[in-house]
Amino acid sequence: MNATTVPLEAILRAQAGLAGRVHRTPLLTSRTLGELTGTRLYLKAECLQKTGSFKVRGVINRIGELSAEERTRGIIGISAGNHAQAMAWAAAQEGVRCTVVMPGNASLAKVAASRAYGAEVVLHGTVYEAFAKMEELRVAHDFVLVHPFADAAVIAGQGTVGLEIVSDLPEVDAVLVPVGGGGLISGIAAAVNALRPETHVIGVEPEGAAAVSAALAAGQVVTLPSVSTIADGLAAPMTSDLALAHVRALVESVVRVKDVEIVEALRMLLQRAKLLAEPAGAAGLAALLSGTVRLPPDARVAVVVSGGNIDLPRLKELLP
Fold it and tell me: Which entry of 50, 55, 110, 133 is annotated as an active-site residue?
């Protein structure tokens, strides 16, 4: 494994630390969706995770590494919603002060949940302005940054999703992972590559927020001039050097899907699998249903349904 990527040992340590604190989410089958995609399809239901997404895995692992002095300073993060909720919940469990900065147009449900868990939520401007505001507050108050996709401990925590997939489906042929900033796919790819290197790990981005694809094309991290997608959980305007190193070394490909394809996948998850996902969580299935990703017949495919935090008015808009 490349020296810049998170080692399996770190992911195994994270798994031990998370035991009994997060759900070991199920790997569900769907015959109908499998027939539609020509695969043996499995759904890794992180939408059923505590706080409604995979994010809590990485946050708990990161907080677990804080020194006593860092705990007294408190933590800060930037998020469209899921990372914020995970930080708020985990910080409350640990008795650590938590501040999260969210864009002004963040989901009202995600804002309310973050506040209910106990975080101080700062709503500020666009996603670009929110990043700047977060850094301003971090410096002013000496907070410890818990970055969603540029932190090795967070990535190691997300890698426990990959450990569980391989444990439950040892002969998995491919894993499809929604991609925003790249933290989730970095952890999953590190775990899967270490345990079953022949498995294909494929990332799926929305066309309107393809930060990792842009970085791969440029050969370095770039900031997108704009982001536009219904998948707010994947709307990161950039990736990180750490995540890019993982994708380059361990991920077979990163593809892009249209918002309309994400909506159809969202509908199929609800109708056929009885899973309520948010748009970000449906991106992996969208790549299969649309034919963007084509795999050999009967391939064993695990699709990560990364989150389920969608408010009912928004769901009604998307699925009238």
Answer: 55
